[in-house]
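Sorry, explain these C-alpha cells?

***
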Amino acid sequence: MRGAALPMVVLSLGLVAALSVGGAFVTRQFESNTRLADEAARLEPAAEGALALAASQLDTAAFAIPVGRSVALPEADAGTTGHPVTFAWITRLSDSVFALTSEASLQRKTLLRKRLRLYVTADSAGFRPLAQGAWTRLP
C-alpha cells in the first residue's frame, strides 16, 4: 500500500480535470442552444406574415395554375442583415384545393429555416381555409 498514494492522486486529478472540461463543454453547448432557440423564435412571426400576405393576394388567377404545379408568389421580404428572408409559393392540389407555403430563413453560421403551410379551398364565395387541419408546420 505504500506505493499506491501517487497513482491515486494522479487518478483523482485526472477525474477532476475531466469533470471540469465536461462542465465547460456542457455550459457552452447550453449557451449555444439557447442563442439558436432565440434566433429561431424570430422566424415563426416572419413565416406567418409571409403566409398571411400570400393569402391576402390570392385571386382568380390561381385557377390558371395546372393541378400539381407550384408558382412562386412575389417575394414578401428580401431581408436585411440579421433579419429573416421570407418567400411563399402556391401549389394547386386539386380543382378547388390549394396549398400556400411560406418559408422564413435566417443566414448565419447554421442556416435556420421555418416553413408553414395553409390549405385553402376555392368556391363561388372566394378562398377559405379548410375546416380541419388548415395550418401545418413543415420541417
The beta strands are 70-72, 85-92, 97-106, 112-123, 126-129, 135-138. The first strand starts at residue 70 and ends at 72. The mean pLDDT is 82. The chain has two helices and six strands.
